[in-house]
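Proteins fold reproducibly. Consider a sample protein:
=====
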Amino acid sequence: MPRPHLLRDRPVARQVLVLQVGTVLLLVVTGILMASYDARRDSRSRATQRAVAVAQTVADSPTVRDALRGIDPTAVLQPWTEQVRRDTDTDFVVVMALDRTRYTHTDPAQIGGRFVGDLGDAPEGGVFTQQYTGTLGPSVRSVVPVQDGDRVIALVSVGITVSDINRGLRRDVTVVVLCGGLVLLLGLAGAWLLGRRLHRVTHGMGEQELARMYEYYSAVLHSVREGLLLLDGEGRVQLVNDEARRLLALPDDVIGTPIEDLGLAPGLVAAARGRTAESDDLYLAGERILVVSSAPARWDGRDVGSVATLRDHTELRSVTGELEVVRRLTESLRSQNHESANRLHTVVSLIEMGRPEEAVEFATSELHVAQLLTDRVVGAVDDPVVAALLLGKSAEAAERGIDLAVSGAVPEGTGVPGRDLVTVVGNLVDNAFDAVADADPRRVAVSFEGDAGALVVRVGDSGPGLDDTAAARVLDRGWTTKATPGTGRGLGLALVVQAARKHGGDVAVGRSPLGGAEFVVTLRPGAEGAAP
C-alpha cells in the first residue's frame, strides 16, 4: 500500500530544489513570452515609423514635384524611387495620382494600374498608415500627400512587407531566447547549489521528520531534570534548556552569546568547552555546587562543538560534608579511645608495680590536661557541634604531631547556624593540617572574634604558604575537586566561600604570623544580600 503524503516525506532539500526549478522555469518562460510580444510590437511600430519617414521625405523632395509637372513623371520617378527603396530597405515606394494611378512601382508591370488599399485622409493633406494585403502581400504601409503650396497634387505610399518585419522579429526573438536560456542555466545552477547546501544542512531529512524531531527534542530538553548546554565550535551557546538556565542563572537572550561572556567560573567555562570528555566533576557556580559532565560533539567525523550536562549537587554535597565531619570526629574519638586505653594500662601497671602514688599523679595530670583543653574549646565555642569538632581536631592534631591552638570566642547571637560553622572551620582546619604535613614545626592556629553583627574566623598555619598566583586562584569561582598540585585546596575551600557568601561575608587569603597561609572568613548573617 503506498504511503500517504509521499511528497511530504521527501527530503526538504529536494522539495525546495523542485520548487526553485519550477519558479525559475516559469519566470524565464514568462520573460521570453513578454519580451517576444514586446519585440513584435516594437518591430511593427518601428516599421510604421520608417515607412512614414521615407514617404514624407519622398513627398517633400523637389524631384517629385518637378517630375509631376512634366509630361512623363514615370520616366523620372521610377528609377529614382527604386534607388530610394533600396537605400532605405523598404519593399515598395509608390508615387500615384489622386485618382490612384501609379507612376512608380517595384513591379514595373503594375505601373499605370490603380493603387490597391485605403488612402485615408491623405488626399486631404493627412498622414495615413495601415496594415494591408496588396500586390506584394501583407504589408505595413503609409500614405502621405505631395503638396504644391496648399494644394495636394499627388500621393506617396511606402510599405514594408510583414514577411520582412517577421525576419527582423525572428532575429530579435532569437537573441531574447538565447539570453533567457543563459538566465535559465544560471538559475538552475544556483538552485542546484542551494539545494545541495540545504540537503547537507538538513541531513537529507523530510519536513515531517524535521518537525517531529523539533517537537520531541524540545519537549525532552525542557522536561528533563538535568541542565543541558550545547556550544558550537566557537564556544557560542546554541541550545540551553530550562534547568541549565536556572542552575547557571542565564539570561533569556543567551543564544549566540560566547560562554566566556556569561560571567561563569573559568573552570566551569573550560569544562563546558569540552575539549576532552569529562565525567561527574564538581564545580562551584554562584551559590550552587554542580556535577558537570562534558564531551565534544561530533557529526560525521566533524567537530561541531561540545555538550555539557549539569546536575545540582548543593544539598547532597552539604550533607556529605557534614557526614565527613562526623566521620573525622569518629576517627578522633577512636584515637582518643586508643590513647585512653594506653593511659589506663599505664595506671594499672603502676599500681601492680606497687607505685600507687605515681599512678594517681599520672592519672590526675592527664585528666587535668584533657579538662583544660575541653574547657578552652567549650569556652570559645558555645555551639556543641562546633566544640565537638574542635575537640576531635585537637585529638587528631595530637595524633599527627601538630600543635593546634584555639583562641577567642564565638559571640552570642551571631545567627550563624552550627552546620555552616562546621563547614567553615572543618574545611579550613583540614586544609591547614595538610599544609603543615611536611613543615617543621607543625602549628595551626584557630581564632574567633567579632560581635553579634559579624563573626570573623581565622585559620593560619606554619606551612609553605601561597604565592600571589596561587592565592588568587585558590578562591576562584569554579575551583574544581582536581586541585592544582601543591596548593592542597580542593572543593572544600569552595564550600567555605559558598558559606561565607550565603551569610553576606567573604573570604580573604593572607600571610599567617606562623609563617604560612592564613584564611580569614567574615560572616555577616544580617547583612543585605545574605541568603535566606
In short: The chain has three domains: 1-223, 226-312, 316-523. Residues 167 and 173 are 10 Å apart (CA to CA).
